[in-house]
């Protein structure tokens, strides 16, 4: 027979296929949903995959959610999540954000969406935020905020974070899961040029801690080895070295954002 897949019936079809253990239908339905992933629906697909026991769908939807977290939190699905699902998201090291403050602001947006009913969960959820990694001025503002002032758990967490900033010489003794940066916030490791087997190479690769992989991001204007590299204002400067035959006195600058070279 022929199976017609439609957005408005795909979940019912997948649920029935799971109930009847029709593996081929399950696979086709899951693949269809994976292709439909978007910041506005990935949380729902993630939850549905979990409920149906579709491990691969759950994994792919979760990975998509982590990768597009900044876009996901702008959608209604995020604001309607229950507290336990918010906790699962906030506890992940794999959230793709520029800094910890972005995750904190996402939590605040969720709490304020239904403050009367969600205030009680604030202390528990705040424990998943790496508060010691927030700017000290923000922590000082939070300490005086009415939303946090009457919550003992929040005050305890804020005090822990303030001590981390006020006593830098004791930070080695204050290490905890809340002082560990998320993978996306620790910067990147770049491998530039050098030797590839028996000849010089022109490639630039970046190591992505979140995906545990090397990603090609550009090429130099020519082969170069035994050179110096410096980072200034988020740009890579390649200085001197050799092209394999002669010494070079050229300085090149690479912008990782635009992937453009200047000499």
TrEMBL record:
Residues 42-143 form the BACK domain. Gene3D superfamilies: 1.25.40.420, Kelch-type beta propeller, Potassium Channel Kv1.1, Chain A. Transmembrane segments: none annotated. SMART domains: BACK, Kelch. CDD domains: BACK_KLHL4. Signal peptide: none annotated. Keywords: Kelch repeat, Repeat. Pfam families: BACK, Kelch_1. This is KLHL4 protein.
């Amino acid at each position: 027979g022929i199976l017609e897949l439609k957005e408005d019936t795909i979940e019912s079809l997948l649920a029935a296929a799971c109930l009847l253990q029709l593996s081929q239908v399950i696979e086709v339905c899951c693949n269809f949903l994976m292709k439909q992933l978007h910041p506005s629906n990935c949380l729902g697909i993630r939850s549905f995959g979990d409920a149906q026991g579709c491990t691969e769908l759950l994994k792919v939807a979760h990975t998509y959610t982590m990768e597009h977290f900044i876009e996901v939190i702008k959608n209604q699905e995020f604001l309607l999540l229950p507290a336990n699902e918010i906790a699962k998201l906030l506890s992940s090291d794999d959230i793709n954000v520029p800094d910890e403050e972005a995750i904190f602001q996402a939590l605040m947006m969720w709490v304020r969406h239904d403050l009367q009913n969600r205030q009680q969960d604030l202390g528990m959820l705040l424990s998943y935020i790496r508060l010691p990694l927030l700017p000290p001025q923000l922590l000082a503002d939070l300490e005086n905020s009415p939303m946090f002032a009457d919550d003992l758990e929040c005050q305890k967490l804020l005090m822990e974070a303030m001590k981390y900033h006020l006593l830098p010489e004791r930070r080695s003794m204050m290490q905890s899961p809340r002082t560990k940066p998320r993978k996306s916030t620790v910067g990147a490791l770049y491998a530039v040029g050098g030797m590839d087997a028996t000849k010089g190479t022109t490639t630039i690769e970046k190591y992505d801690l979140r995906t545990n992989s090397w990603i090609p991001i550009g090429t130099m204007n020519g082969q170069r080895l035994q050179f110096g590299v410096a980072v200034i204002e988020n740009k890579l400067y390649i200085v001197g070295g050799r092209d394999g035959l002669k010494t070079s006195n050229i300085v090149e600058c690479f912008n990782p954002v635009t992937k453009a070279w200047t000499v």
